[in-house]
Amino acid sequence: MSGDSPPRFVLASPESEFYWRSGADGRLRIQRCGDCGRWIHPPGPACPFCHSRRIGPEPVAGTGTVATYTVNHKEWIPGFTPPYVFAFVELDEDPTVRIGTNIVGCEIGEVEIGMRVEVLFEESGEWHVPLFRPAGAREP
Amino acid sequence: MGEPLERRAVISGAAQSDVGRRLYRTGIDLTVDAALRAITDAGLTTADIDGVSTYPGFGGSFGGAMGAELHEALRLSLNWRSSGVETAGPLGAVHNAILAVATGVARHVLVFRTVVEGSGGPLRPGSGSGGGGGMSGSAGPFQFMIPYGAASAACWVACYARRHMHDYGTTRTQLGAIAVNGRANAAANPKAIYTEPMTIDDYLAVRMVSEPLCLYDCDVPCDGSTAVVVSHRDYAPDAPAGAVGVNAIGTAIRGRPSWDQFDDLTSMMMRHTAASMWERTELSVDDVDTAQLYDGFSWLTLAWIEAMGFCGKGESGAFVEGGTNIGPDGAVPLNTSGGQLSAGRLHGFGHLHEAVMQLRGTANIGVDDCEVVAVGAGGGPETGSLLLTKGPS
Ligand SMILES: [Zn+2]
Predict the structure, then answer these.
(1) Which of B204, B238, B272 is the endpoint of a domain?
(2) Cα dist. B43→B12, B46, B49, B77, B235 in Å?
(3) Residue B391 contacts by C-beta under 8 Å, 6 or more apart in sequence?
(4) How far is the CA of A93 from the centre of ligand 1 (A)?
């Protein structure tokens, strides 16, 4: 994807709204249980591990590893100009938290499984859509 | 356990409507053709049908036709009707019918799956070609994929295929053996969509869709309806075309119901589904004479081959490479009517229909002395299977 941003069709649920707004202050947040401390994704109505209702968004480092990816050559949604990378990133805090995203900020051929990445956000209307780029690519 | 309840059921009839890339007929129109043919094939009349079961139970290009539409079109008198998408994949409609018959709620259940995805309009996120059942729109689990342009199951399956290649060394040449095998078998199927010969070089040369999946790794949308009649096994002697036994159903969905959060990126829910099927039978994978395994995307077939146990975890690429093991004379003849990649995306019911034909000895490419067939359908978190036998189990 180069040039204009593609259309980001975000349709947040009450549970997930924080996820799509979190980047307003530059931090990625994931739902976490206030009792057992486990991370929960996608966000839900209760902790699936201890059933606590004391759950809420908590900032994470925003770093992780590419678990797998695909290079799309078809314009599945108009405005997503191929080729572009869709990936699953596993977060450092808990690799079972797997986030779908686009990998940006590098050549498509550089993306590989195991690649270290960090979050950045793309503003899209009222939302801040989490994207990932190679770790350490952050401007000084 | 005692005798598994599903053994009280048989498949007494099976048929299809015309199948084509674009037939420009309505889903219910095609469904009536398939249903009437299946009922006749079973030696029954519409007056005998007291149950209807379908997947997913709504219209549109993916849904095809509702159970109530067939109920009304044929003015059936039913004791039981069921549909839904929260099943073990499309074969869940067959599981439900089997259980209805086994428990005596109904005696002869007409089960159908209809698609009009060939002429039914453009791809929409969450529906249409490989769109993941009834989870439409992006408010549900797909809200985490749609904003990134991952609007098709092709994107999600591609991620699993990539990880499988990374972890186990699976190659595109190996993946291509599924497509080449399907195309070769489709040549003998008069209802198949694509029948011109395909070589592995043709496969490797075609354009990419979602790497590592190319165009020939994706099934072909089509229009068509498949129907079977599930009857109580005491009807088996009267079924003129021969009754196929239900030995075991595979229904387990023990993992997270998600395309993106499943615990293992090199297998899918069929791992649990197939395991639960083998838990319900004294038969083993060595008894299977032919396998009809879902190929909505070619990698799904590799996942099914491993889940069923035809080879070990991660070994499916080597198992299928070159096509010898899966060819008509191989260890496990696979998708003998062409599968969905070449014969058309009938959403698992093409595989089911072929299984019945094999066990009757009427398949276009017949497997010698066929007595046991494994059928697996679906991908991601929506998978179901059947172990079928020649005559009641
Ligand atoms: Zn908890």
Answers:
(1) B238
(2) 8, 10, 11, 18, 10
(3) B236, B242, B243, B244, B245
(4) 15
Q: Which residue has the tokens 């090199």?
A: B266
Helix/strand number for chain A, H first, E second:
1, 8
Classified as helix, coil or strand, B351 is helix
Q: Based on the domain organization, do B231 and B267 belong to the same domain? A: no
- pLDDT of B123: 44
Class of domain A17-134: mainly beta
- Residue pair B251/B384 in contact by the 8 Å Cβ criterion: yes
Measured in Å, residue B313 CA sits from the centre of ligand 1 at: 33
Q: How many helices (H) and strands (E) does chain B have?
A: 12, 11
Beta strands B372-379 and A39-40: pairing type?
unpaired
Residues of chain A with pLDDT below 50 are: 2, 140
Structure pTM?
A: 0.96
ipTM of the complex: 0.96
3-state SS, residue B138:
coil
How far away is chain B from the Cα of A30, in angstroms, using its nearest Cα? 13
